[in-house]
Design the sequence.
């Protein structure tokens, strides 16, 4: 039971983090739509913008992982299929987090 409670708390915590960051991101997307390449690159050079974007993506991926695992736990009846599906969800989530980190570091360093 402890595992479900911690997942529930983490789901709510990531949701609280995502609320203001989503508004920030939508606002920035509106601004970025009129920028050229150098202005977009300058946007990500800012440590504040890069950090907020990184937190947004990581929180979003983790929130989605928790939600998808909950759906699998609730609706998939086969134990083996449940285990395989949750492993695939975890692998894709962590791979996406790694690619996000590498991409953001590449943008900042170039």
Sequence:
């Amino acid at each position: 039971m402890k595992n479900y409670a911690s997942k529930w708390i983490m789901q709510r915590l990531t949701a609280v983090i995502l609320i203001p960051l989503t508004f920030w991101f939508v606002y920035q997307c509106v601004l970025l739509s009129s920028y050229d390449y150098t202005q977009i690159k300058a946007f990500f050079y800012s440590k504040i913008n890069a950090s907020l974007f990184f937190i947004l993506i990581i929180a979003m991926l983790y929130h989605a992982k928790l939600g998808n695992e909950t759906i699998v736990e609730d609706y998939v009846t086969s134990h083996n299929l449940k285990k395989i599906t949750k492993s695939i969800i975890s692998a894709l989530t962590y791979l996406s987090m790694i690619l996000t980190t590498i991409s953001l570091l590449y943008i900042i360093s170039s």
In short: Residues 69 and 86 are 6 Å apart (CA to CA).
